[in-house]
Design a protein that fits this description.
Elements (H helix, E strand, L loop, with lengths): L1 H22 L6 H15 L4 H6 L6 H13 L5 H13 L1 H7 L4 H11 L6 H15 L5 H10 L2 H10 L3 H17 L1 H5 L2 H15 L3 H17 L1 H18 L6 H15 L8 H16 L3 H17 L1 H6 L3 H11 L12 H12 L5 H17 L3 H17 L1 H9 L11 H12 L6 H20 L7 E3 L5 E3 L2 H29 L11 H4 L4 H16 L6 H8 L10 H8 L7 H10 L8 H15 L2
Helix pairs in contact: 1-2, 2-5, 4-5, 5-8, 7-8, 7-9, 8-11, 10-11, 10-13, 11-14, 13-14, 13-15, 14-15, 14-16, 15-16, 15-17, 16-18, 18-21, 20-21, 21-23, 22-23, 22-25, 23-24, 23-26, 24-25, 26-27, 26-32, 27-32, 27-33, 32-33
Length: 613
């Protein structure tokens, strides 16, 4: 308290001296004012409005805010002093909005004027940050739109980008995203200018992955805001994308172009037409030839988007066959795991949309290459998604999968068949399956397989790895049942952790209001809730946090493009299964108890935990 009071008095004295000596014509006195603003910003940084008003620094607000407002508009003031004024106002954003709401339009106007190309760079950068901070605070749409047009903010940002270094480029792209979200109707009037600017920045900075992501975010913001922006971006960007997808193109350029193309396709009108549709044959041809991991990953994302959004068009254009060839190419042993990491979701989608029309020999071939790739896979996500493919096929035709794989010898010799190889891999990798939909698909498929094992004694002769790793005839039904039990125990553990976390969370979300000085205005519950939401996201839980789910799905005003794999997973009926209930019901109604008494005891314990919720 004493140190804060002393610092506040010193800042006040510096302000008075600076103002007085500047009025007397002292050319160096502005440094005192700039030092005072710097110290004040450091001292109050992180304080909530309530905490600031109650502190000793709150008494200076009535002096600081008007003074910085005047300096921002004073083009005769030294550059560094003006820049410091914009920076401080941005840092005091909540206090400015609460105490001077009527001055926000004037402040926005001053920031817009300071963005122009004839202003010093240090002023333009600080003004850019301040403009974006207070643009979202002005509720009057007409004021926002008028400033953008009259002050030529988009042109100012464009000139700022063209000479920007990496850090400044990030700032200006972020600023453009905010402006597009807040003033989309006005941006439509300069849609072609925005598209040309996006193309210029993307072409110049495609070697920088962080800048590339921000460009994609900007494109997604624009396409989500207005269909006219989508049309303009397609018209300006697609010629360059087509050029990058020609045979013999640079692999990195093709990869970044596919990312951009995918962002455009997620909100393009369907059925796809024009240059957008012309990219598909070029893309498929490159997938069949490329070995570049980044390009193939991005291509899977794009192909999932294509099939998901316009399956009828894919079928009518005769692309189902070429897409299956792409899948077989991605599953080939010559590619590393990173190149084919997303082939599982693509194949799952193709089977879901067109699988009923595939002849038996095509399905048999797909099963063979999936099992072969599964035997080589090291990445847990790839293993998980390939098991999901097998699980979905088992749900559609369990006997067909068993018969087909049982008749296929393992490639490379060594004896055995692909059914034995699959079960060996599945039992060995079961613990690595952790995503919610993947757990639901694979565990419910194992329940069906367990039923089949009990009904068909011949399947009990299948060989699986024993304790020493050698292939032996084991009690396969008990081995499968143990995996189902492990899944129930995992669900019980998740439910217990969720219940314990809920009990620990504070009831009163406003309990922190009286402790702003201690926690910088953040309530304990908010932090715990954020951590729980993040835990649920990592574990792919039920995701009760609708805002978090909407953000990942690309909905609302988030500006984040929808993730194709996230959308695919959430649209799968298996995602909504209550696996804890399903596994518990299955284990409680076993037609034949396990031969292992220890396993029976564990099942009873898990069932008790599942029913005593």
């Amino acid at each position: 308290r004493e140190s804060g009071r002393a610092l506040s008095e010193m800042i006040g004295e510096l302000l008075q001296r600076g103002e007085r000596q500047r009025s007397e014509g002292d050319g160096q006195a502005w440094k005192l004012s700039e030092l005072a603003l710097l110290l004040y910003g450091i001292a109050v940084g992180g304080m909530s409005v309530k905490a600031l008003q109650r502190s000793d620094f709150g008494q200076l607000l009535q002096t600081i805010l008007p003074a910085t407002g005047r300096l921002c508009q004073d083009k005769g003031a030294p550059d560094l002093l003006r820049a410091r004024s914009f920076a401080l106002l941005r840092r005091l954003g909540d206090a400015v909005c609460a105490m001077l709401p009527g001055d926000l339009p004037a402040l926005l106007d001053a920031a817009a004027c300071a963005l122009t190309a004839n202003e010093p760079m240090v002023v333009r950068v600080s003004a850019c940050r301040a403009f974006c901070r207070f643009l979202t605070a002005v509720s009057d749409k007409s004021i926002r739109d008028r400033l953008l047009v009259e002050r030529s903010v988009l042109a100012s940002l464009g000139s700022l980008m063209r000479g920007a270094d990496e850090e400044l480029l990030h700032l200006t792209l972020e600023s453009l995203c905010i402006i597009v979200r807040q003033c989309v109707d006005t941006i439509v009037s300069v849609a072609d200018e925005l598209s040309a600017l996006v193309l210029e920045i993307w072409s110049r900075s495609r070697s920088d992955p962080l800048v590339g992501l921000q460009v994609l975010d900007l494109v997604s913001c624009a396409t989500a805001g207005d269909q006219r922006l989508q049309v303009s971006l397609e018209k300006n960007l697609l010629p360059s994308i087509l050029q990058d997808l020609q045979p013999g193109c640079d692999p990195h350029a093709a990869s970044t172009s596919v990312q951009l193309l995918c962002t455009l396709m997620k909100r393009a009108a369907v059925p796809f037409h024009g240059a957008l549709w012309q990219t598909m044959p070029l893309l498929i041809d490159l997938v069949m030839k490329s070995e570049e991991s980044g390009f193939l990953e991005n291509s899977c994302d794009l192909l999932v988007c294509l099939v998901q959004r316009s399956p009828a068009q894919v079928k009518e254009a005769g692309l189902v066959g070429p897409l299956l060839q792409c899948v077989q190419r991605l599953l080939s042993p010559g590619l590393d795991d990173n190149a084919c990491v997303f082939v599982g979701p693509l194949l799952t989608l193709l089977l879901d949309k067109f699988g009923k029309e595939f002849p038996s020999d095509i399905l048999a071939g797909l099963l063979q290459v999936v099992v072969r790739r599964l035997s080589q896979a090291k990445l847990p996500f790839l293993v998980q998604e390939l098991l999901v493919v097998i699980g979905r096929l088992m749900h559609q035709d369990l006997q067909g999968v068993i018969t087909t794989l049982g008749s296929q010898p393992v490639e490379g010799g060594g004896g055995g068949n692909n059914l034995e190889l699959l079960l060996s891999l599945w039992l060995g990798h079961a613990e690595e399956v952790r995503a919610k939909r993947a757990r639901n698909v694979t565990v419910t498929a194992l329940c069906r397989l367990h039923e089949r094992l009990l009904a068909d004694p011949q399947l009990q002769s299948l060989r699986v790895p024993g304790p020493d790793g050698a292939m032996v005839v084991a009690n396969l039904a008990d081995r499968v049942l143990a995996v189902v039990l492990a899944a129930l125990e995992f669900e019980n553990g998740r439910a217990r952790r969720s219940l314990e976390a809920a009990k620990k969370a504070p009831v009163d979300s406003d309990a922190s209001d009286d402790n702003d000085d201690d926690d910088d205005g953040a309530g304990g519950k908010g932090r715990q809730a954020d951590l729980l939401d993040y835990w649920d996201l990592l574990d792919d839980d039920d995701d009760d946090d609708e805002e978090l789910e909407e953000l990942l799905a690309g909905g609302g005003d988030s500006g984040v493009g929808g993730d194709s794999f996230f959308d695919l997973e959430r649209s799968d009926p298996f995602h909504n299964i209550d696996l804890r209930q399903h596994a518990a019901e299955y284990l409680s109604k076993l037609q034949q108890p396990p031969s292992d008494q220890a396993l029976s005891s564990k099942i009873a314990t898990a069932l008790h935990a599942a029913t005593s919720r």
